[in-house]
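[audit] Reproducing an earlier prediction to check determinism. Same input, same settings, fresh worker. If the C-alpha cells differ from the archived copy the diff job will pick it up downstream; this log only records the rerun itself.
[audit] input (324 residues):
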Amino acid sequence: MTGPATRVVIDLCAVIVAITEDTPSILVVRSLGEDALPSGPFDAEDHATLDKGLHLWVREQTGLVLDYAEQLYTFGDKYRDPAELDGAARAVSVGYVALVRAGALAGSGEAAWVNWYDFFPWEDWRSGRPKLIGTHILPRLERWIGEAKSREQREGRRDRVATAFGTSDAGWDLVRVLERYELLFQASCIAEPLRDAVARGLPPSSEADKGVAAFLGHPMSRDYRRILATAMSRIRGKLTYRPVVFDLLPHTFTLLQLQKTVEALSGTTLHKQNFRRMVISGKLVEPTGETEQGGPGRPAELHRFRQEVTGEQLAPGVGRFGRR
C-alpha cells in the first residue's frame, strides 16, 4: 500500500538583473516583510504557458514588463519552503533569469532594486579580496572542518573550502557562486540554515554563529538566495562566451561603460587596454562615429554591439578574464 500523495504546488520566480551606477542590482519584492524574488503560483487554467504566467506575476508585483526571460532551473527540495513543516504543500519553483535596463517600479509587491553584493558580499573583489573572507568565513569554515567525524570527511571538507574560496593553487573562480553559497549553508555560516533550524524545532544556534551570519549578507525568504546564487553563476559563466551584457547597456555606450558593466557582474577589476583589445579583436562592438556629450574630460567614442553579435544564438563573449 502507498501513503497519501504529497500535495505539490508549482510557482514561478524570476531573478531580474539591472546595472545601476556600476552596481549589479536585483529586483526584489518586500510585501511580506522579507526580501523575496518576484514570484507567484502557476495557474493551469489562466496561464497558457509557464513563461506567460511569469510575465504576468512580474508585471503585477513590480510594474515591470519583461521582454524575455530565460529559464534557469527547477527548485524542488523538500522543506525549501519552511511552511511545508506545518503541512503546507511541497513547493516546486521554476526559476527564470532576465537582464534588463533599470526602470521605475510599481505594482503590489513593494518592489525595489537591491545591490546583489548585499546578498553575497564575499563575491565582490573589485577592491581586492573582501576582508570578511579572512576575518569571518575561513575561521568559521575551519571550525566546521574540525567538527567532521572522520579524517576522510575532514579532508573532503578542506578540499571543498580550498576549491570554493580560492585558497588552493587554482585561485578564485568567479563562476563558483552557487558552490560557495551551498558550502556556507551546509556549514551554517549564514542566516538561512539558522532560521530553518528554528523552524524544525532544533536547539538554537550559538551567539557566535549568529554573529558570523550577520556579516554574511542579507537573508531572503524561502531558498531565494540559493536561486539568486544559481543565476549569478549562470550569468558569470556566460560572460566568457555570449554578449549577455548588451541587455544591460543603452543602444550606444563607451568602452569604459562596457568594461564597468562586465566588472560589476564578474566582481573583478580588468586591465583597461587588455579588455579593449579583447573586445575589439573579438569583433564584439563597432564605433558609431559619434562621441559622448557632456562628460568630463576628452569626449569618449561611442560604440554599439554589432548586429551580427546580438542576432546570433551563440555569439562571442568578452573572453576569459581574471582579476587585475
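[audit] rerun output stored. Observation attached for the diff report: The first strand starts at residue 8 and ends at 20.
[audit] end
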